[in-house]
Amino acid sequence: MGTLDSKIALITGAASGMGRAMALGYAQEGAHVVIADLNLDGANTVVDEIRAAGDSASAKSLNVSSTEESKRVVDEIVAEHGSLDILVNNAGVGLIKPLDEMTPDEWDRIFNVNVKGLMFLTQAACVPMREQNSGKIINMASIAGRRGEALVSAYCASKAAVISITQSVALAMAPYGVNVNAMAPGIVDTPYWKQVDKQFGDLTGKAEGETFKEKSADVPLGRTSVPEDIVPLAVFLAGPGSNYITAQTYNVEGGMVMS
Ligand SMILES: NC(=O)c1ccc[n+]([C@@H]2O[C@H](COP(=O)([O-])OP(=O)(O)OC[C@H]3O[C@@H](n4cnc5c(N)ncnc54)[C@H](O)[C@@H]3O)[C@@H](O)[C@H]2O)c1
Q: Which one of 38, 169, 214, 244 has the largest count of C-beta atoms within 10 Å of its C-beta?
């Protein structure tokens, strides 16, 4: 018996990084995991990994910045499985850009995925969760949402918005027994951070890997994060242990930010 036995979980951006790690973790705990990603081939590869371990998963193509696609995916899941118990809003994109060079289109791209995408997929998922009178919603924030950074304004603002949306949706859904919480990772070794490292390097002239190494020196626990570090909290927030917890954002960052 797993803590998520017979639960239906939708994880966005689960073809890679932390989304993939959470998908493997949820499936191991007994959930059927729907891997939703822009990258359908990558999503299918994760499904194969989960099935090879004897667990249950399926893949869906999803661009979270399309409200229509988000609604379609939720409707399909409910039609296929009868419920949607867990939503992890994990898909996200980053941008390293000096203040003066930021364009409105770049700003919109970050907000369309990290904020609008999260909000309207949540809106769609709340329909079945309200009817079920149960559900768990877990949002991927970041320590970037706790504190601004000169070169990271759009991303930091988008993750601060995720923390705020978590609080508002938690209050809206509390009467229906739906728990809404967020996780704020620090520096996690994923394809996302490789891009961030390159974007910093292009601006500062630092060699590949140097920014990642420098920022790693600030982690009190002495190492940067790997995607698997997020999984125990993600499982806890999706399971019955979190039934009396809502509207919270948890740092998982090796002690970089105190709260
Ligand atoms: N890596 C870090 O250091 C770090 C730290 C804090 C928070 N985060 C956040 O964690 C989440 C996952 O990051 P990761 O590092 O695992 O990234 P990743 O790049 O490894 O994976 C992100 C996944 O999201 C998918 N994706 C991107 N845009 C999408 C869209 N519009 N619709 C659907 N899928 C989309 C990508 O195809 C990819 O599979 C993001 O929200 C990110 O902002 C990352």
A: 169
Does ligand 1 have an atom closer than 6 angstroms to the CB of 13?
yes
Tokens of 54: 């004897």
pLDDT confidence of residue 31 = 98
85 lines ligand 1 (CB under 6 A): no
Task: Map out the domains of the chain with their CATH numbers.
Answer: 8-186+226-252 (3.40.50.720)
- Quote the pLDDT of residue 218: 86
Whether 18 is in the pocket of ligand 1, judged by its Cβ within 6 Å, is yes
Which residues are CB-neighbours of 51 under 8 A, at least 6 positions away?
Answer: 57
Residue nearest to atom 42 of ligand 1 (CA): 92
Residue ranges of E strands in 38-134: 56-61, 86-89
CA distance 219 to 204: 22
250 sits in which H/E element: strand 249-252
Residue segments in the chain with a per-residue pLDDT below the cut of 50: none
- The CA distance from 39 to 9, in Å, is 18
- Spatial neighbors of 207 by CB under 8 A, at least 6 apart, are 201
Out of 11, 12, 16, mutate this one to test ligand 1's pocket (max ligand atoms within 8 Å of CB): namely 16
Cα 3 to Cα 29: distance, rounded to the nearest angstrom: 6
- Pocket probe for ligand 1: among 18, 119, 250, the residue whose CB has the most ligand atoms within 8 Å is 18
Region class of 247: left (phi > 0), else alpha (psi between -120 and 50), else beta: left
